[in-house]
Structure formats: structure tokens, C-alpha cells
Amino acid sequence: MQLAEFPRRRFIHSPTPLEPLSRLSAHLGGPTILAKRDDCTGLALGGNKTRKLEFILGEAIAAGADTLVTAGGVQSNHCRQTAAAAARHGLKCELVLSRNVASNHPEYDRTGNVLLDRIFGAGLNFVPRDIDWATELEKVAEAVRRRGGKPFVIPIGGSTPTGALGYVGCAQEIQQQAAAMGIVVDAVVHCSGSGGTQSGLLVGLRGSGIPVIGISCAGSKAEIGGLVLDLANRAAAKLGHPADFTAAQVEVVDDYVGAGYGVPTPGMIEAVDLCARLEGLLIDPVYTGKAMSGLIGLVRSGRFKPTDTVVFVHTGGVPALFAYEDILTAG
Known about the structure:
Oligomer: single chain
Number of strands: 10
Helix content: 40-55%
CATH class of the largest domain: Alpha Beta
Number of helices: 11
Strand order of the largest sheet: 1-2-10-7-8-9
Shape: globular
Order of helices and strands: EHEHEHEHEHEHEHEHEHHEH
């Protein structure tokens, strides 16, 4: 099957730019780094979840849903974009927000993505860390049913085979843009958490010879790699392709997670600072900051040749910068 055959609501600004980070590349002594600007997808200050939500909204509306129910951390980019997508399509939205980042900053629960969730009219259901996501989502979905609504439950990150289709499309865009620019891409690097982005890229880049390197922001390479492998095979099967990806084809680097999801690291702070001061480019503390710190670390360790060309997928998340003001301005 082709992507055009699936139910879809089109609202992203595509293709997103593929632009050189020339000053950062020079600072690192190569390789050539290009940013795939999926922070510019257009919905609610952009981000990678918008690509997934086009297909997920298509599925939800086809099912007759009137309420989207999803979950994430307090500063979840996925929740912010889901709330905006619901508003755009006349749907209600209920968010389950886990306090899985210990923060003493008084603004953490109020600013950044949380402020935008409220502006978009979402219902916010705060829960403690280490809860069972499926159970909490079902509780909220059942509450929606009791009041006469029809919920559509979206797992964390929109990381389903349907959601992964959005990054099959992104992979196609990258290849088309690279061909138009006359360049050969030697690797794609991005942040990997719930697995949907990396799995879609793997399916979309299959046969191209371009490695996809996921920098974990949350868990071990075994944990994240398992999610990616499962989703890649399920997404491939959904498209009618062979579901035969192996663990050897899934590369996840977990050296840049630090103490855990959402917990700042010196490498993340350096990456945010370098991108801002060298490129005027904002990246976020939770996802792209750690992914860029991983890319910088791989460059410094000699993973790439100075003559290589690496695409960094900027998956958005900039609103979370405001929730980390105390960390980012401490120096």
C-alpha cells in the first residue's frame, strides 16, 4: 500500500526545510550537518508528532471519535500537539500528564507545553510518576464514555504503526530533498524515545543504505531498540512490506540519557548553547538537546568522517525551554 491510501488529515507544512548548520559543522571540524526542520511542521509551534497525528486523526475521525485521549510527561510535546490537532478538528481532548521529572522549579507545571495545553482547551489529568499508562488512559477514556463521549486512545508519543507512517513520509522527503540538492546522506540522527519516529524512518529509508541512529532520551538501548524493532515491523506490515527487520538493523545510542528522561545533562546544555549561539537555532532540553549532544559526541569520537553528510532530524519541543529557565540560565 501507499501512504495516500490511508485515512489522513493534512495539516502539516511540508516539506519541512533541510538546511545546513554550517557554523556548527565548522566548529566541530566536520561532518556537514543538515537539519531536517521538523520543528517547522506548523501545528502549535511544530514538532515531529504532527506528522504522526495526520494519520492518527484520520483513523480517529473515521472511527467516529469525538475525544482524543493520550498521555505523556508534564512537558509532553506530543500532548501539546494532540491538543492542538483536536481543537483544529472540533474534537475534545483529555491528557494524562505524569510528573516523571522531579523539578523544584515552580513554573514547571504551569509554563511551556502545559500553558499551551490549557490554551488549546485540553482537560489535564495529572498523575504520579511510575504509573501504568494503559490503566490511566483507560480510566480517562471510561470517564469520557460515562459522559456520553466516544474516546479514541492514542498511546504515548503517537507511537503506533499508524503514527509511524508519518515518518515513512519524512524519510521520503529527506531522500527527495537530498537528491534535489545533489548530496549523498551518510546517516540520519535523531532523538528516540517511544520509537515511532525511528521506526518510520527505518521503513522509509529501507534499501537506501542510510543508517538511522536514534539517540535515546529515556531508556536503555535494549529497551528503546525493542520498541523500535516491534514498531518498524508492524508499520512495514501495515504497508504490505516484509516485516523482517532485525535487531542488528536498529541502532540506538544510550550514552547521553544522563540520569533519566527530562533530567538535564552538561552535554545537553552545551548542545542548546552551541546551536543557539552558532546557528540561531533553538533546540529543547528533553529531546533534541540530548539528541544533539549525542551527535556532537559521535562526531568527537570519530564516528563520522569530516567529508560525511549527516541529517539531524529536529523533532521540535522548543516550548519546554521555558520550563527549564533555571537550568539554562544558571551560568
